[in-house]
Design goal:
The chain is of the alpha/beta class and 374 residues long. The chain has ten helices and 13 strands.
């Protein structure tokens, strides 16, 4: 081993030193000749390697429970306007972003300092769906919170439903809060997305009536029609222009406004309803035609809509196909709709086709489905 070789070398060097420095030649008379004091012996033995510097010990990574506690405490400090407690955990480069302009550490603390003491912003908060991701030197907290605002009890208060994201970053032997954001959750977030989309700010979509709908109603006598999740009303307005008595329902108020404005501009009659489809009453034996054209797949919606179709009336659906291995909520698998309509319905069309969809993509595999109630 290397350590054995080094020890042997040191031992050999010691012997050479003794030989050279202590043993001297003798004269014939047995006297040591005069001489200068011996010089220090120089040995070419290898020097021992320098010791490696000892790295400072790194503090242990936080546990998930630590990150949860830090995050709750920071948000609570913000709620009660405790600038000292919050400032102690904010990173120098901290940013908060909840829409509008980001706030720096100094701006955040100055805003808190201007608040009236003893006036918390949130009276109650309930957490759910909390997640922590640990990846040195960062720790990320994401949590869904339902909150009730404080200081507005006269008018019943305000309720908020949103997602918090807090990013903690290691600074020396501790962690500091580097980033904070909040965004709407639940129906409010979806409504905002669709309002922006229907205004033309987001995903592109076909402004013309759906081709499957046009083909299906070409030979039908107009009657009552329900256009579910009508958006800006492209299909509802087409049906109205063909003489149908149309109700269009959507939870995006911007879509309802656009549909009403378009109907007025074209002198068409349209009952445009702004409603949450999870709570909407489809009715019973009410419609000659119900359309689900690019309606997001939601549990129970089709089953609730089926009894609302009159006998002899049609149910028309077009949406994305779900292939093997794809997530359940991404579309309809082959035969899935036929199974839903096997009792009391005649399936007129059930096809899977590669085509250009009306929404979001240049090319996709689509499901086109038409059934008549017996």
């Amino acid at each position: 081993m290397a350590r054995d070789g080094l020890a042997a070398g040191v031992f050999l060097c010691s012997l050479l030193f003794i030989s050279a420095c202590q043993l001297r030649p003798m004269s014939a008379e047995g006297q040591a000749p005069p001489h200068d004091p011996p010089a220090a012996c120089v040995c070419a033995c290898p020097a021992p390697p320098p010791s490696a510097p000892v790295a400072p010990a790194q503090p242990a990574a936080p546990a998930e429970t630590d990150v949860l506690r830090w995050s709750h405490d920071a948000i609570d400090a913000f709620d009660r306007g405790d600038a000292a407690a919050l400032g102690a955990v904010l990173s120098v480069g901290f940013l908060q972003f909840e829409g509008g302009s980001p706030l720096t550490r100094d701006e955040e603390l100055a805003m808190i300092a201007r608040r009236k003491p003893g006036s918390p912003q949130i009276a109650r908060r309930t957490w759910s769906n909390e997640r922590v991701s640990l990846h040195e030197p960062y720790a990320v907290f994401i949590g869904e919170a339902k909150e009730h605002a404080a200081g507005n009890d006269v008018h019943g208060g305000s309720d908020y439903h949103g997602w918090y994201t807090l990013v903690w970053s290691r600074e020396g032997d501790t962690y500091k809060l580097a980033f904070w954001s909040w965004k709407l959750a639940g129906a409010g977030a979806q409504r905002d997305f669709w309002n922006a989309t229907l205004r033309g700010e987001g995903t592109g979509f076909n402004k013309e009536p759906n081709h499957l709908l046009v083909e299906t109603v070409a030979r039908l006598r107009p009657g009552t029609a329900l256009d579910v999740a009508m958006g800006q009303g492209r299909n509802a307005l087409y049906l109205a222009s063909r003489g149908w008595k149309v109700t269009g329902v959507d939870f995006a108020d911007e879509g309802v406004r656009l549909a009403r404005d378009a109907a007025a501009a074209r002198h068409l009659t349209l009952d445009a309803v702004n409603a949450d489809l999870d709570k909407y009453d489809f009715g019973a034996d009410k419609w000659d035609l119900v359309t689900f054209l690019y309606v997001p797949k939601r549990a129970g919606w089709i089953e609730r809509a089926q009894p609302s179709v009159k006998r002899g009336g049609l149910f028309v659906l077009e949406f994305f196909h779900r292939g093997d291995g794809e997530a359940e909520g991404e579309g309809y698998a082959s035969g899935e709709l036929a199974s839903l309509f096997k009792d009391g319905w005649e399936v007129l069309r059930d096809e899977v086709a590669d085509a250009t969809p009306d929404w979001a993509e240049d090319h996709a595999t689509m499901v086109r489905f038409v059934a008549r109630r017996k």
